[in-house]
Amino acid sequence: MNRICAALDVGDPAAAERLASRLLGHVGLFKVGLELFVAHGRAAVEAVRRFGQPIFLDLKLHDIPQTVEGAARGAASLGVDYVTVHASGGAEMIRAARRALPRTKLLAVTALTSLGPDDLDAVGLSRDVVSRLAKLAMGAGADGIVCSPQEVAALRAALGPGPLLVVPGIRPAGAGSGDQRRTGTPAEAVRAGANILVIGRPLRDAPDPAAAADAIAREIASLP
Ligand code: C5P
Fold first, then answer.
1. How far is Cα of residue 62 from the mean position of the Cα atoms in its chain?
2. End-to-end alpha-carbon separation of the chain, Å?
3. Which residues of 90-122 are buried (b: 16+ CB within 10 A; e: fewer)?
4. Does ligand 1 have an atom closer than 6 angstroms to the CB of 23?
5. Residue 224 has pLDDT above 90, yes or no
6. Which atom of ligand 1 is nearest to the CA of 31?
7. Is 6 in the pocket of ligand 1 (CB under 6 A)?
8. DSSP per position, 92-106
9. Over the stretch 13-36, which tens digit does the pLDDT of each residue have?
10. DSSP letters along 52-89, please?
């Protein structure tokens, strides 16, 4: 299985289709995120669906349980394969999303990969927030966890082989980090136990996105 999930972080469905058509056959999943979904909603998902790949709808839901359950029902009606919630919404919120999405892989975001140690301190989050939130989310029925490459090994050791570990903040050697702070290479993430690598700008902004995806796939495949 190709474990690269291409984040289609573009402004409209036509641009998403153009990027997806360049990446088709070179990645395993397509992600529709907030930029595309807030502006275009269902049309954005439909534009991506025609490629026949699993769709990851990255809503990062975070609200009271009743509101999240309603929003998750809407996501269920879109027929997507993966949906995200913020684990910090708490166990009852995650259970509410789970009820509304019985057939969808429910992923819980721990701490955004754009937060470095100083940012975590500034918002009052302790260093062990990722493992605490991961355990809470798995206990509340999530299928997996979104974490940075730097936490994969510890979470895999703590949670065992079952949970999906979905990892953004991926930067091939030499790539700019942009706004991401807790980053790692594709090889580092997979060696530590990642199941899915979420990759946006290193593919979207490459002169040849398919070649960039193939290079990442080769880097992963060459691991012992
Ligand atoms: O361009 P880049 O590879 O940094 O894109 C990462 C993607 O992963 C973005 O679409 C972003 O919304 C998403 N993401 C993230 N950090 C999380 C969860 C999702 O960067 N914790």
1. 15
2. 17
3. beebbbbbbebbeebbbbbbbbbbbbeeeebee
4. no
5. no
6. 10
7. no
8. HHHHHHHHH-TTSEE
9. 999 999 999 999 999 999 999 999
10. -S-EEEEEEE-S-HHHHHHHHHHHHHTT-SEEEEEGGG
Q: Residue 42 is encoded by which pair of tokens?
A: 């269902």
Any ligand 1 atom below 6 A from CB of 151: no
Q: Which residues contact 52 (CB under 8 A, 6 or more apart)?
A: none
- The secondary structure element, H or E, covering residue 28 is none
- The parent domain of residue 180 ranges over 4-221
**200 CB less than 6 Å from ligand 1?**
yes
Residue whose CA is closest, atom 5 of ligand 1? 200
**Active-site annotation, residues:** 60
User: Which atom of ligand 1 lies closest to the CA of 204?
Assistant: 1
Total domains present in the chain: 1
Centre of ligand 1 to C-alpha 179, Å, is 10
pTM, to two decimals: 0.97
Whole-number Å distance between alpha carbons of 30 and 92: 29
- CATH no. for residue 56? 3.20.20.70
Q: At what angle do helices 13-23 and 34-49 cross, to 10 degrees?
A: 60
Q: Which atom of ligand 1 is nearest to the CA of 111?
A: 21
